[in-house]
Structure formats: structure tokens, C-alpha cells
Design a protein that fits this description.
The protein has about 140 residues and is of the alpha+beta class. The chain has five helices and four strands, in the order ααααββββα. Helix 1 crosses helix 2 and helix 2 packs across helix 3. The longest helix is centred in the first third of the chain and has 13 residues.
């Protein structure tokens, strides 16, 4: 398989990893990454700006905006905890139940699961969560 030096050079300049170079030129596969790397070495194409394991770079703490793409509650909870939110129910303050970490659930205060604004998220134990008005999409009737 031969590569065009100009297209590879351009893709390398725009990319931060060999995987990104492959996407840029429309190729797939990890074996191809090694071939691209060898091609770059043989043709003196500089890739010293590559960051390496890009998939291991830390994610932004909690950066979900209102109406952003759907995100699982597990990921939202993980990001909340990593940003410093305590692993306790924000209503009754329980953190442990029968000697183990209490199960905690993510509650969207306004009942809109797509509204992932930090001010709309709350960590609750199952008992407190079940008592909220928007639990399992149970909403109060609209005033007309």
C-alpha cells in the first residue's frame, strides 16, 4: 500500500495522533497506524507534536450545558463526584446504609433529563428521590 507524501504530511500537521491521521485520510485499523508511523519516519515527516494516548486525557469536570447531547446518569454522577460533589444524599445527608456506601441517584430538579446544568442536578438517596415531584417523570399538573 502506498501513500501520497503530501496528503500524509498535511494530515500529520493537522493531527495530534496517528489514529487522527488515519481518520483524516479515511483509513482504519491499528496495523495501519504502524505503517503510517514508518512512512513518516522514512520520509522525515515530523510528528513530535503528537500527544500520545489522547483517549486517556482527562475530561472536563462537569461541562454539560442545558439541552446538550444525551448523557448517561452514571457518567453525570461520576463527573459530579470528580468535580468535588460529596457522595452523600443532598437532602437527608445519608452516606452509608448498613455499613456500606449508600446507593445514590441523580435527580434532575426540573424533571427534564436533558437539562444537565449543574444547578439542575442533585444527588439523592432512593428514599429522598422517590419523594420528589419529578421522580420518574411524575410532574405536578400545570397551572392553566
Amino acid at each position: 500500500m502506498s501513500y501520497d507524501i503530501n496528503s500524509i504530511s498535511h494530515a500529520v500537521q493537522k493531527s495530534l495522533s496517528f489514529a487522527q491521521v488515519l481518520r483524516e485520510i479515511g483509513k482504519r485499523g491499528s496495523g495501519t497506524q504502524q505503517r503510517i508511523k514508518l512512512f513518516c519516519q522514512r520520509n522525515n515527516i515530523d510528528y513530535s507534536h503528537f500527544t500520545g494516548q489522547a483517549h486517556r486525557t482527562p475530561q472536563p469536570k462537569v461541562s454539560f450545558e442545558n439541552g446538550s447531547k444525551k448523557v448517561s446518569t452514571a457518567i453525570l454522577k461520576k463527573r459530579l463526584f470528580s468535580s468535588g460533589v460529596e457522595k452523600v444524599c443532598q437532602s437527608c445527608r445519608i452516606s452509608e446504609w448498613r455499613g456500606v456506601q449508600a446507593p445514590l441517584e441523580l435527580h434532575h430538579i426540573d424533571g427534564n433529563r436533558n437539562n444537565n446544568d449543574i444547578s439542575n442536578l442533585q444527588i439523592l438517596c432512593p428514599n429522598c428521590h422517590a419523594q420528589t415531584e419529578s421522580y420518574c417523570k411524575r410532574k405536578t399538573k400545570r397551572k392553566e
